[in-house]
């Protein structure tokens, strides 16, 4: 009987490590362990071998999906390596690099690192490429990064960027046009947005272009929705934006869209009406478009659905925006008379009593008070 030592020796000889029967290809990308993995993947992204680069981009995307590994990759210098690949001659490699960047910029640290290494001009340049795959990947990366103030500010400050995006809205297919509009809306939401609004209104001439998109019934629904949201943002603080919107004929179109079947489109149109109705010129246009009876009918239709209303829902947003438009219109004498004739005060008071929404209650209370004035406060009635 063999001793334990002899049996152990036979076992080691039988199961000892042997050369792999198939030789590993020269362009194989194998994972490293622990801290060695991050430096290795960066080196592979900068390899002279195109196949290794392509495989490394896929591996990098998997690593960047995990928050802890994302930080380690950024520390190892993966961002400049990916930005360099955006300028690669191969379109498939450009698309893969942009898709991987989307995972990188999902965090604010990654977004700032991408901007620091000059990724934004490269991405904007790729939007001029004919390849649909490249443009889809670039829009995905930009929209992911646009959740952060750093990207919005950089996009606003980048020379000609907003004008370029507005041009893509008119030229691209519906999906990418809607994404370009989403990016422009993000630009208007920066903390100090005066420059962004001024550039879009006066340099890019955005209002007439958006008016054309909204007025065209053949415009795809996502594009029309994005254009309405951007128009509302442009009119939020800029009187020039409101004036241009009235002159472009936006008022009757927005009034029509408030009654749209799509809840999102109706909310966006109501928000735009709220903004444009701050202008005296728009109040006249709304009166001429017979806006008051139409808005009262929309409020009456919403009254029967108050039991299903949820806080923060599109229905709540729609009602609040229409009530705010009513408040703005009540400043115009003829519109105020129409509100009284249409029974707006009683309807609004019923809304106030039936709803549990504090936002609707507050807006309804103000609207009822404004609609009840015989003459505007501070204005003497004619004898």
From TrEMBL:
Superkingdom per UniProt: Eukaryota
SUPFAM superfamilies cross-referenced by the UniProt entry: ARM repeat
Xref: InterPro entries: ARM-like, ARM-type_fold, Armadillo, RSP14
One Pfam family recorded for the sequence: Arm
UniProt ARM repeat ranges: 77-119
Matches recorded under SMART domains: ARM (SM00185)
Protein name (database record): Armadillo repeat-containing domain-containing protein
């Amino acid at each position: 009987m063999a001793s334990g030592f002899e049996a152990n020796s036979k076992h080691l000889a039988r199961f000892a490590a042997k050369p792999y029967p198939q030789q590993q290809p020269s362009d194989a990308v194998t994972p490293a362990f622990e801290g060695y993995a991050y430096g290795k993947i960066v080196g592979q992204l900068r390899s002279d071998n195109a196949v290794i680069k392509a495989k490394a981009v896929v591996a990098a995307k998997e690593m960047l999906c995990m928050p802890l590994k994302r930080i380690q990759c950024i520390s190892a210098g993966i961002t400049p390596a990916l930005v360099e690949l955006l300028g690669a001659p191969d379109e498939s490699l450009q698309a893969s690099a942009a898709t991987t960047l989307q995972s990188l910029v999902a965090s604010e640290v990654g977004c700032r690192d991408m901007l620091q290494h000059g990724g934004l001009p490269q991405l904007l340049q790729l939007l001029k490429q004919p390849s649909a795959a490249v443009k889809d990947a670039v829009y995905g990366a930009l929209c992911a990064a646009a959740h952060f103030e750093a990207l919005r500010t950089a996009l606003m400050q980048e020379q000609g960027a907003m004008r370029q995006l507005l041009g893509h809205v008119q030229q691209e297919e519906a999906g990418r046009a809607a994404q370009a509009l989403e990016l422009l809306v993000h630009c208007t939401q920066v903390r100090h947005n005066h420059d962004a609004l001024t550039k879009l209104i006066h340099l890019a001439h955005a209002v007439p272009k958006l008016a054309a998109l909204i007025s065209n019934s053949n415009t795809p629904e996502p594009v029309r929705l994005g254009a309405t949201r951007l128009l509302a943002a442009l009119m939020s603080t800029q009187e020039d934006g409101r004036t241009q919107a009235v002159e472009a004929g936006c008022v009757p179109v927005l009034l029509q869209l408030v009654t749209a079947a799509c809840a999102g489109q109706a909310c966006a149109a109501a928000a735009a009406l709220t903004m444009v109705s701050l202008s005296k010129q728009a109040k006249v246009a709304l009166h001429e478009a017979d806006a008051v009876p139409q808005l009262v009918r929309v409020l009456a239709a919403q009254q029967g659905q108050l039991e299903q209303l949820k806080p923060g829902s599109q229905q709540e947003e729609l009602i609040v925006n229409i009530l705010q438009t009513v408040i703005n219109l009540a400043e115009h004498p003829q519109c105020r008379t129409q509100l009284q004739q249409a029974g707006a005060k009683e309807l609004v008071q019923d809304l106030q009593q039936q709803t549990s929404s504090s936002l609707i209650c507050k807006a309804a209370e103000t609207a009822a008070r404004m609609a009840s004035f015989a003459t505007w406060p501070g204005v003497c009635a004619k004898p």
